[in-house]
Each structure stands twice: as structure tokens, then as C-alpha cells.
Amino acid sequence: MLIAVTSLTLIATCLGLILGIAARRFHVEPPELVSELEAMLPGSQCGQCGFPGCNGAAEALADGLAPVTLCPPGGPALALALADKLGVQVELGAMGEREPTIAAVREDICIGCTKCFKECPTDAIHGAMKQMHSVMKEACTGCGKCAEICPTEAVTLVPVAATLGNWRWREPAFA
Amino acid sequence: MSEVLILLLSTALVNNVVLVKFLGLCPFLGVSRKLDAAIGMGLATTFVLTLASAASWMLEQWLLEPFGLGYLRIVSFILVIAAAVQFVELAMRKFSPELHQVLGIYLPLITTNCAVLGVALLNVQQGSDFLHALLYGLGSAAGFTLVMAMFAGVRERLELAAVPASFSGAPIALITAGLLSLAFMGFSGLRLD
Amino acid sequence: MGFRDLIADFKLQWGVHPDGHKSLTSERPIESMPLPERLVLPLAQHIGAPARPVVAPGERVLRGQRLAEPVGMVSSAVHAPTSGRIADIGDYPVPHPSGLAAAALVLLPDGLDEPVAFEPCEDPHSLEADEIARRVAAGGVVGLGGATFPAAVKLGLGKRNPVHTLLLNGGECEPYLSCDDRTMRERPQAVVDGARLMARALGAQAVVIGIERNKPAAIAAVQLAASGHPEVSVRALPVRYPMGSEKQLVAYLTGVEVPAGGLSAEVGVVVHNVGTAAEVSRVLRTGEPLTHRALTVSGAAISRPANLRVAIGTSVADIIAHCGGVRRDVARYVMGGPMMGMLLPGTDVPVVKGSSGVLSLTSEEAGGGSASACIRCARCAGVCPIGLQPFEMAARIRAGRAEAAVDLGLKDCIGCGSCAYTCPAKIPLSHYFSYAKGSLAAAERSRLKNESIKKLTAARSERLAREAREKAEAAARRKAEREAAKRRAAEAAAGEAAEERREVPQVSA
Amino acid sequence: MTTPVHAPHAHDGGSVGRVMRLVMLALLPVTLWGFYLFGWPAIWLWLITVGSAMLFELVCLRVSGRGGPTILRDGSAALAGWLLALTLPPWSPWWIAVIGSFVAICIAKHAYGGLGQNPFNPAMVARVALLISFPLEMTQWVAPAPLFSGTGPDAIEALERLLFSSPIPDALTSATLLGHVKTEASRGVDLLASVPSFGAAAADGIGRHAGSIGETGSWLILAGGLFLISRRVIGWHVPVAVLAGLCVPAMLAHGLDPAHHLSARHHLFAGAAMLGAFFIATDLVTSPATVTGRLLYGLAIGFLSWVIRSFAGFPEGFAFAVLLMNACVPIIDRFTRPRIYGHGATDGRAA
Fold this sequence. Notes:
The structure holds 4 protein chains of 4 kinds.
Chain A: H1 2-25, H2 33-40, H3 53-62, H4 75-86, H5 92-95, E1 101-105, H6 115-119, E2 125-126, E3 134-135, H7 145-149, E4 155-159
Antiparallel strand pairs in A: 1-4, 2-3
Chain B: H1 2-14, H2 25-30, H3 35-64, H4 73-95, H5 97-103, H6 114-126, H7 130-160, H8 170-184
Helix pairs in contact in B: 1-7, 3-4, 3-6, 3-7, 4-5, 4-6, 6-7, 7-8
Chain D: H1 16-63, H2 76-87, H3 94-107, H4 122-133, E1 141-142, H5 155-164, E2 173-174, H6 177-186, H7 191-198, H8 218-230, H9 237-256, H10 264-270, H11 273-280, H12 291-311, H13 318-335
């Protein structure tokens, strides 16, 4: 009995010692995953993912509580980047090829209340009180917050118009 | 020399730990989605297996047997294996963070990889000497790495194949493992004398 | 065919041998097609930024007048092919697989064909290199082989990299097309002259003209034209597709490969098309800009296959009508060659500077049919001139993993279509690669947009924070002021009250 | 607006069906020769194997909802059944054929998603599965009993035998050369004695000896294989490499120790080497896609089958060797990718 206890203790002590030394010699700082993830997200805090802002989304991603496809403005490109970062499999099918949309203001209904451009996370809507508002195409993420808040439904999301510049081949049909 | 070769070949191919002895199936199925990860896992296991074979042989010969502590064999072997795994993990995180990230949670699984414990116990059972124990460990590990790599290669291709929904994932992996095992049966009865 | 060629041919592993169909048109001289009633001149007939119109609707223009000027470094001008009135500037269908409309000028010829005053040059070989490039740019010359890269920009490459050799591409490896063949046979002097001028502009010492062996008459004609010029040599090329691709031509004729993602000028070589050379000679000597081009009208469905010299802007429908219309059911109208050309959504599109052919293909010629599963025969890998494995790339793209296809060399794909041509399962491999390249480009665009949006958001949150801070400060200030005022008022009131108490007896509240 | 169709607007006219039909054409001579040698039982067995393979293919396609009979026209199922039939003992009972077809088509092929998706050669999976599951039936060889010679059963008799699995009369049973020498060796008789005792027909390549159809008529198989190479259906790399991988070690070992190692000629003509080299190992789906890879793959198959034939428990190792190397194909493909133009050694930038 005594031998058994002693020998096991001895083995454990020796191994523990080796591991302790190894842990000190091979020490590495763990990376700040959340801040890295947050840096990858668009940062427009649009809330479409259902989390409070991009930081919230990054935390959820780090904890594995959210799928990498959570961010519609980031699109499949971001989903793939996140999947790569987190080392998980990505099901892009769930995300789909979402038709990119941008906000558009209908001139005849807009009352110039300025609510939309106060709401816009990227300052993509310009205008002033009692004046027509307009959307800057380059800055709009299509998050839809403006459309939600507009009292007259003058802001709608429309598909981005096809031009020779952004046209691309669709995926071939396959039997 | 030829004896060494025969021992290595027979443990790696004829008595392959995974496909013939059906040991270590957990990492075989778990870490075989990507070829790089599988090879990394194979190499990590090789290191642990060889180390553990040697360490457990010493433990057996110098401690357990002289003091009649045979009943502590499994406990103490697991202790040694666990420590070796921890050591590999620490070293890997330092020297190959990418691999560490890929292997992720599977690395500690080597601890419970029955192939490692199995080989250590088989060594005791066969009463091997130190060199044989070491070679047995190395050969088994080489066989493990080989089939891991083959299996992962096939599975990587299956990722792109139009596997029917009802078969995709674990079912087709198991079918593939079965067919691989079938192929390895060709080596049965291999005698190199 | 020398020993060296034999060895080089033997080492060529890639490529396909599509049915040439060249005999349909190769013996038909280039004829001038009469002007149609309407010309549509797209502003983007070249790679780079679309040109900016310098005329207004309703204005009368003369032949050779500049209608649109280049914008930025890589761009090209558009000139009037004849005199007439500008009817409109707006969106019209252009030759593009999407069938979308794009900005174009509409010119209604008045039949007078009145030219502007051109400045001919007696001896262009005495011009400075920069002046040659300038005049080529002013003439609106772009690569006529189909790539439509502004020719003058390519002539400027000699400045950044020492260029020792100008390769002239007379391969014309696309089936059906024979307009380059005809140009070399009918205007060999212009081809050689243009090549020498371009070599001068580039500072290149040697000119090598590569012509496929299936054009012996062109080889003989160009050889004769080049006989007085020791720096110009003619090399016969093996007949296989895509011999006329820039990368293949450079590797075959110089033995050096163009680095991945780089320009051929980095290895001291620049490639131009023979048709471009002939135009450069004409533009420099006569001073007239590029307004017409030679093209092949062919295909089994066309009544009268021909080589035509047409005004740029002529519609495909007019050309087909000129060639007697179609005599069989047309499965596809194709602009360019069948291997890399584009399917036209309709015939109501104009011919542009890069249009080397108009094909009316029957369904037997066009091939196609529904795709079946890949049997991994790897023929596509065998014929790929770049050494890619198309079936592996397509499998990854199909699984939604374009990134993995990039690791296999998607970005090196030249889109020659050899893989899809030879695939027994009829998998549209080229289509997969265009699709994946498009997705990657779109992803890159969205990544850039995300980044700029991130900056905007940061600016906004900073602004909001500043506003909040200012508001808070202002509120604090106001509060302080209010309190100060209150205090002052209270003090004043207290003072007054004290005084009043002295004066008036207290009234109860 | 029409949907855009991508270039190229031309095709060389080849098709998967054409590839399969040419392979079948190449198999026809040896199959007919086998029918002649082994008579009606072999003919019925072939019909049942091919028929059941096509039936299983149809069922699988229906179940997975991928179209009906038209897709059978690609011929891949018939070809898999055909190849399997050529590797079975010619007088096998019907259920061997049906189980084999089931394994080949349903498990080895359609569980993976059908044509082009399977990592393992379906016919070889079926053969190995049968060999391991039914070792007795799968080693019941008969001596040739040619048609019209009166030695074998007639059509009706053969069908009855097939359906009711009646035992083969002892007078007709025989052994293959490889099986014979293995058995003899286990009794301590070396090759110097066991090979002559088998008879001279073993290695003349005409096949007047026991074995599967694919193990006889080697010259006809070779001719079929050369036909396929000439029509560019298969490349020369795999067959040449397989035969080299088999013959070179065989020659060396035979030269050193003729008492324990068969000669290269026996290795070539006595077993399934020819069929394997030209028709099995060259299977497009399950072989590597690169030239280097194909050479490696072929050499390894040849070598492994020599190792298994010479040292392991089974007399014939070709099927095992093919399966083992099938499993290595993804790795081979990955490490033998061709150099991409403009990358690597002759990089213009580096030059």
C-alpha cells in the first residue's frame, strides 16, 4: 500500500515538474480573439445580427454562440474569413447569395423629417430638415434601419442596379 | 536490421492499429477532415506513442514489476501518457500555432487514444525488450499516421463529392473506413521470412 | 521547319486542335462594306475608363473627328467613321454577355463622308518614340486581337522595363477567323512597317512575327515584306489552340515565361496583334484615326461567309444582312472566335474595335448539351496551357469554395476555354471560372466597401461622441449659468427683501 | 433576354458514354473468348452480373431522384458489372453475382454520390468484399470446358446449375496457377516442383487454364488495352507502370531465388495482371490525374500486387493493391500537381 502510494506520488511529482518547466519555457500569450474578430466585422453596429453592435457579435462568435454567417452586410466573403479564423466549417448555403440592396428615397413621399439620417450607422443619407434626403451609394450597407424608422415609408431597400462594372456570371446550372 | 524492418512493416501494415486492431478510432474519425490536420495529428501521435511506449516500458520494468505493482499498470500508464500529451501540446502551441489551432480540442484526445494505451499494454503482454517496445510503438504510430493521411485524403475529396444527404458526414466516413479496412486485409498473412 | 522547332513542338503538351473552319473565308479577300444608316459607338470599346464625349447631340461631325476623349491613364479616344449628325448620347445595347446597355454615341451618316484635315507623315520612322506613342494614342488604336488594351499604353511599357523584343501575334488560332490571315496576305508591308514603328516606340531591337503553319501564304507574304529588314524575323508556329495567347506565344518564341500576375514586359517582351500593327502603320502614315476594322463573318448558318472591312459602330444585323442573311437556324450569334468569343444576346449590337469576327453558328457547330458528372479523366488538365487542373477547381467552386480554387491557380487561368472544349462530360468549366472570378471580385469590392464603411462608422461615432460631449458641456454650462443666475437672483431677492422688510411690513405668503 | 452562355461555343464531340462504349468494345474479344472457354455458365453469369448492376444503378438513381433510364446510357454501371463478371469464378452461383453487383453499385458507387464521386474502384470493392465474405465460392475454379466440346453443361443445364447453386463436379474443379503454387508452398513444395506440375498452359497468355475470364486470354486483353491507348481513352502511363512495378521485382526475385519466386512471365500471364493494368487500374475516376501521379500509382499497384502474391495469404493481390492505391490517390494528386505557368523554377522574375 505504502509503496503504491509513494510510487504514484513520485511519478506524478516528476511529471508535474517536467510539465511545469515546459509550461514556463514554451509560454505564449493567448491572442485576443474578440478584438481580432471585431476588427474583421464591418463595425457599422447595424444590429442586423441580433447582437448589440459588432463588439457583441464578436463576443458571441468567440464563444461559439453565433454562426459565422451572422453578418449580412459582410456577405459570404466575411463569413469565409471568420470561418477560417475560427477554424469551423461554413455552410454558405444558409446565407445564400443575398442580392445586394441599397436604400433609396422616394422623392414624392419624403417629408424631410431627418429621422433616417440620424439613424444611419454610416452617415450614408444626406439632407436637412424639410428637404429631400439622398443616399450615398458608396456608403450604404443596405442595413435597412432607415427604412424601418421612416414614418412615411419613403425609404425602401432596392437591389443594386446591374451595370457593366458590377455584372458577373451567375453560377452555371448543373444537371 | 531486417528484423527491425519486418517488425516495423508488420506493425504498420499487417497489424495496423486502426484498420486491423480497430484501436484509436476516435481521432481516426474525428481529425480526418483535413489532410494537414490528419498528418499533424499522426505526427503528434507518433511522438506521444513512441515516448509513451518507452516510458511505460521503463515504468513496467523498473517500478511496477520489481515491486509487484501490476495492478497500478493502467493508472500509471495513463498518467505517463497524459503528461506526454500535455508536453506535446505545450511545445506545439509554441512552435506551430497553426497546427495547434487546427488540432484544437483533438490534441488532448491523444490522452484517451486507446491506441497509445493499447500499444503500451500490448508491449507488456508480449514481454518485449526495450528496443522492441520502442519499435512496436514507432511502427504502430507509423501505421496510424499512414492510414490517417490516406483516410483524410479520401475524406477531403468526399467534401467535394455529391454524397447523398442520408450518407453524408459520419455514415460515408464509416463506409470509407470499412472499405479501407477491406483493402488492408490484403496484407493478412504477410510473411517476410 | 527546323530541328529546334521540332523539339519545341514535341515539348508542347497543352492545347487542343479544334476544327478550324478556316476554309469558309480564308480565300475571300477583305471587302469594304458600305456604310449603314446608323452607327452606334460605345464609349467603352477598350479596357480601362470609358471615354468622355466631346460632342453634343445634334452636332454635325466629320470623318475622323474625335467624338470622345480618353479619361485617365488607361483609356482610348473614339472617332467618327464618317461625316454625319450625332443623334443621341445615351445607353444602347453593347456587345457584352449580359445584354446590358451602356453609354454610346449614335451617329447618323449623311452620305458625304466629308473628312477633317488629316496630318499625314511621310517618314514616321524619323519620329521620336514618345511621338509615335502619342500619335497612336491620338488615333484611338487599341489591341485589335480582342483584348482591346489601348495600344499606346502598351507602347509606353518600354519606359519602365527594358524591352528587347516585340512579338507580333499572327497565330489567329481561334477557329473560323481569317481576318488576320487576310490582312497579312493583303497588307504585309503595313504589318511589317507597323511592327517596326512599334519596336521603335518600345526601344525593342528585334521583331519576331509568329504565324501558325496553317497559313503558308501569310508566312510567305510577310517573309517577303520583311526581307529588307534584318531586325524582323518570321517564325512558324505549331497549329494548336491557344497558340495565340500572349503567355503561350512568349513562352514558345522566347523560351521565357511571363511571371504569374505580371506583364510580359517584365521579361523584356511586348506582344501586339498583326492587325494592330497594320493599323498603327496606317494611322501614322495617313494621320487618319482608327474608325474601321477588318473582321470575319462566318459560321455554317451565314449565307455568304466573308472578310469585311466595316465602320466601327455598324450593327451585327446590318453585317449579316450584307452577307445575305442566314440560311439555317442560328443557335448562337457569337462575336469573336468560338473559343473565347461572347454569345450575343441579339443582333442589335454594334461592332466595336475589338470585334474580330461575327459568327452565326448552328447547334451542331456550337456543341453544348447538358452537363453530366465529372469522371476525373483529367483531359482538361492535359490540355490546359497554364498547367491548371480545371476539374479540381470546378469541383471546389461548385462546393462554394472559390478561395480553394484560387489556391489551385484560378487567378492564373487565361479563360481560353480549352478545358470546356474537350470535357467529355460537357461541364462548363470556363463558365465556372468566370463565375468564381466574378464572385471573388465582388467579394473584394464588398471588402473594400466594408473597410470604407468602417471608417465612416468610426467617424460617425466620433462625431456622435463629440456632439454628445459638446451637448453635455453646453448643458453643464447652461446649468452653471442658470444656477449662477438663480443664485444672483436669490441674492438680489434676498437683498431686496431685506430692504423691503425695512421699508414695508411683511406680507404673509 | 436569353440567358448568357459562356464560351467556348464549340466542343470536340466526346462524351462519357463514348468513353464507356470504347472500353466495352475493347473488352469484347476477351469476353467472347472466355465464353467459349467456360461455356454457358460463364455466359449466364455475365448476363446476371451486368443485368443486376444495371438494375441496381436504376434503383439507386430513382431513389436519389436523379433521373431515370436515360442516364443508364452512359454505360458506367454496365461496365462496372462487366468488369466484375470478368473477375469472378466463371461457374459462380447467381447470388455471388447479385451481391457483387450490389456492393459495387450501391455501396462503392452510389453511397458516394454516383458516377465520378467514388474513391474506390467499384468492381474491385465488390471482388474483395466477395473474396473475404465467401472465400469458398470465390476460389471454386473450373478447368476450361469449351462450348461445343460437350464437356460443359448446355444452356438449360447451366442455368439450372447457376440458379440452384449445385456443386461443381470434382472432375471439373481445378486451381489457378497462383492458387496452386500457394497451396503447394504451404505444404512445403517449392516452385521448382509446383510450377511444372500445373502444366504448360499457365503462362502462354492464351488462357487454357482455370481462372476467371479476366485471368485468361491475356493477349486479347493486351490487344484491347492497346486499342484503348490508340484511341486515347486511356494513357500509357498507368498500364506500363503497373506492369513494370510487377515485373521488375518479380524478375529480380526470380533471378535470386527461383525456388520461391515466380518468374515475371508467370506474374504477367497467370493472374489478373493484364486486365488490372489496362482496365482496372486505368479507371479514370479512381486513378490520379497527373502524369507523375499515374506513374507512381501504377508502379505501386504493380509492386503491391507482387508483394501480396509473393508473401501474403491471398494467392492474387491485384484487387487489394488497387484498393490500397485508390485510397492514396488524393494524396498523390495533391503532391504531384503540375507546375503552373509563370510560377516556380523558371519564374521570369527570378531569371
